[in-house]
């Protein structure tokens, strides 16, 4: 089945130690999103890629970076995690091409713990 | 500013009874509206959407939603609730961002269905 995959599902990192979260998709969608979600709050968009074009949200801290080496993969890098960065990180995809249906498809999320 | 509001933090309903989860929106232009459901420690699952056409939209798992332009509402409904419907529900509106779109989410409503 076509899907959005996030690895790992649970990640523990130390305060200040860089961490990378991974997202891959088999949907061949051209848009990929990263969201941060804290304790059952609304997901907060960090940034998204439209193909290779990177779109950062104005209030996303510089501590958060992203890479998209190809259509299928997208990475979230947190350069120096703080305790406030502990959250669920959600990856999502959508397409603007053939079969454009507007909705986003979400992965299962990575729960990040910062110790 | 474009926004989505879910006025109820929690909705409680008995199994077998009808349920309604409320959503109102404020956008410029025609709204593209969505409902997502989230189970604990999982990503968001798409339920249904309104883009254009019939005001009553049917979605997954027996859910439906009614678009009301004059009241700027998009309430989620189900004729007969199941205990397994207990989850966190998000209403969202799509807004344009650069050369694609992004979702603005409501704050979420926890649905509790009691046996």
Task: Give a written overview of the molecule.
The complex is a heterodimer of chains A (115) and B (115). Chain A has 115 residues and is mainly β. Helices cover 0% and strands 50% of the residues of chain A. In chain A, a hairpin with a 6-residue loop joins β4 (31-37) and β5 (44-50). Chain A is globular. Chain A starts with a strand and ends with a strand. Chain B has no helices and 12 strands. Chain B has strands spanning 3-5, 10-14, 19-21, 24-26, 32-38, 44-50, 56-58, 64-68, 73-78, 87-97, 100-105, 109-114. In chain B, strands 2, 5, 6, 10, 11 and 12 form a 6-stranded mixed β-sheet that branches. Chain B starts with a strand and ends with a strand. Chain A binds chain B through residues 4, 6, 31, 33, 40-43, 45, 48, 50, 53, 55, 88, 90, 92, 94, 96, 101-109, 111, and chain B through 32, 34, 36, 41-46, 49, 51, 88, 90, 94, 97-103, 105-108, 110.
For the structure shown, list the relevant keywords.
heterodimer, A: 115 residues, mainly beta, seven-stranded mixed β-sheet, four-stranded antiparallel β-sheet, globular, B: 115 residues, six-stranded mixed β-sheet, 12 strands, 0% helix
List strands and helices in order, with pairings:
The complex is a heterodimer of chains A (115) and B (115).
Chain A: E1 4-7, E2 10-13, E3 19-25, E4 31-37, E5 44-50, E6 53-56, E7 64-67, E8 73-78, E9 87-94, E10 105-106, E11 110-114
Parallel strand pairs in A: 2-11
Antiparallel strand pairs in A: 1-3, 3-8, 4-5, 4-9, 5-6, 7-8, 9-10, 9-11
Chain B: E1 3-5, E2 10-14, E3 19-21, E4 24-26, E5 32-38, E6 44-50, E7 56-58, E8 64-68, E9 73-78, E10 87-97, E11 100-105, E12 109-114
Parallel strand pairs in B: 2-12
Antiparallel strand pairs in B: 1-4, 3-9, 5-6, 5-10, 7-8, 8-9, 10-11, 10-12
């Amino acid at each position: 089945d076509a899907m959005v995959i996030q690895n790992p599902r649970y990640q523990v990192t130390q305060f200040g130690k860089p961490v990378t979260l991974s997202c891959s998709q088999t949907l061949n969608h051209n848009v990929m999103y990263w969201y941060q979600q804290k304790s059952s709050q609304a997901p907060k968009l960090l940034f998204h890629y439209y193909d290779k074009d990177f779109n950062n949200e104005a209030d996303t801290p510089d501590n958060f970076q992203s890479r998209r080496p190809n259509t299928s993969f997208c990475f979230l890098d947190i350069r120096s995690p703080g305790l406030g960065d502990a959250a669920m990180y959600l990856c999502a995809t959508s397409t603007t091409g053939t079969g454009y249906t507007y909705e986003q498809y979400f992965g299962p999320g990575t729960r990040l713990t910062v110790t | 500013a474009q926004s989505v509001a879910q006025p109820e933090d929690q909705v409680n309903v008995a199994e077998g009874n009808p349920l309604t989860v409320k959503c109102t929106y404020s956008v410029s232009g025609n709204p593209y509206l969505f409902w997502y459901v989230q189970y604990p420690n999982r990503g968001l699952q798409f339920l249904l959407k309104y883009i254009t056409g019939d005001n009553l939209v049917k979605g997954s798992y027996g859910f439906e939603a009614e678009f009301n332009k004059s009241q700027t509402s998009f309430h989620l409904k189900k004729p007969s609730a199941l205990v397994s419907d207990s989850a966190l529900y998000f209403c969202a509106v799509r807004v344009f961002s650069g050369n694609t779109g992004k979702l603005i989410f409501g704050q979420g409503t926890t649905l509790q269905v009691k046996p």
